[in-house]
Amino acid sequence: MFIDLDDFKKINDMYGHDQGDVLLKIISYRLRSTLKSRDIVARIGGDEFIIMLSDIEINQLSDIIKRMLNVVERDIDLNNLVVHMKASVGVSVYPNDARKLGDLMKNADIALYSAKEKTGSSFEFYSKEIESKFNQMNKLENGLKLAIKNQEFDIYYQGIVNHIDERFSSAEALLRWENKELGSVSPSVFIPLAEKIGIMPELGLWVIERVLKDIKKWEYDKYLKHGVAINISPIQLEDENFSMKVQSLLSRYNISPQTIEFEITENIYIHNFEKVVKVLEELHAYGIRLTMDDFGTGYSSLSMIHKLNLSKIKIDKSFIRDIPGHDKSIELTNTIIKMAQSLNYMVVAEGVENDQQVAFLKDQGCDFIQGYYYSRPTESGNFSCLLSEDICYNKL
C-alpha cells in the first residue's frame, strides 16, 4: 500500500518544517498501531508511506485500510494547535496485480493516483482500467508541458450580443488545444491539469498576450464596445506581480485596459481570498473590468461579492438550459437578473440556443446574450470577418 497525506504542504507552510516532522512521526506511530508486528511501515519520502502486509485475505484489506484512515483523521496536537489530516491510499496485491516487488510498488502508486482524484480519506485498488487512465493522464501532462513551445494552442472567440440591437458588443476568448497524438483536448480536462502541474501562470499570460495581438488586428474600438473577456485562473491571481505583468503587456501593445475584461469564477473563494482581492483591486484600479463567471454554481457569497469591484455577472448555462420548460430555472434566472440589477451589475446569459430563451431574457432585461443562437466559437480570422460585416451566425 502507498499512503499519501492530503495537503501536508500546508502544515509545513503554516507551522514550519519542525512541526511537520513531528506530525509525520505521530502518523507513523498511529499506522504502526493498526498492524501486526511482522508488517512493515516505512516513510519513503515527503509525506508518503509504504506498507507491506503478508499472510492476509484480500477481503480483510478494506477494513484494515479504514482503520488506518481513521487513526490518521484523529486530532493531532502540535504544541497546543489541533490539526486534522486525511490520507489517500493505493493498493496492489500479490500475485493478482504483479509478482515482482518493483511492479507491486508501481501499481500501488498508480492506484494512489486514482485515490487522490477523489475527496480525502479515499482508497483505491489497482486495476488495468486505472493504469490505462493513469497512462493517458501522463500523456496529457507530458504533452501539455510542451504545448506552448510546440505552438499547439489557439484562441477562439465567441461573440456576445447586446439584447437591444442584437449586435456584437463584446466577445469571450476561449483557449483550445490540438495535439497530434491526443487530438482535440477539452478545456475541462487540460485547464485543471495545467493548474495542477504548475504551468497555468505561463499559459495564462500566453493567452492574454495572444488576445492582445488579435485585438490589435481588429478595429476593436469600432466593433467591440465592451472589449474581449479573458478567463483568469485563481492561481494566476495568487501572483502578487500579476497586475504589473498585465499592465506591461497592455503597454507593449498600446492597448487600453478598458479593451479587456477578466472573467473570474467563484472558486477564488477557496484560495487565498485576501491576497486575490488585493490583486483584483489593482487590476480594477488600472481600468480592467471584472466579471463573475458561472454565477450561482460554486461558492458564491454575497458577503464576499460586495468586496469585489465587479462590472458584470454571467449567469451559468445550467440555469438557461432548461428554459422555458422548467419553472425553477426561470425563477432562479429571473432572481439573479433582478439581484444583479439592484447591485448595478450588468448581466450576461450564456448558453442561449433558441428563440424562447432569447425572448425570456429580453423580457427580463438581461443586458447581454451569449450562445450558439447568435455565434459559435470561431478562430480569430473568421471572427474578425463577422465583426467587420456586423453579422451573427444566425443571421446568415
Kindly describe this structure.
The chain has helices at residues 8-15, 17-33, 61-73, 101-116, 128-147, 187-197, 200-217, 220-223, 234-237, 242-252, 273-286, 302-305, 317-320, 327-342, 355-364, 380-389; strands at 2-5, 40-45, 48-52, 76-78, 81-83, 87-91, 122-125, 153-162, 168-179, 183-185, 228-231, 260-265, 289-295, 312-315, 346-349, 368-370, 378-379. With 396 residues, the chain is of the alpha/beta class. The protein has two domains: 2-126, 2-Layer Sandwich (Alpha-Beta Plaits); 140-395, TIM Barrel (Alpha-Beta Barrel), CATH 3.20.20.450. The strands form three sheets. It has an eight-stranded mixed β-barrel, surrounded by four helices. The N and C termini lie far apart (61 Å). The mean pLDDT is 89.
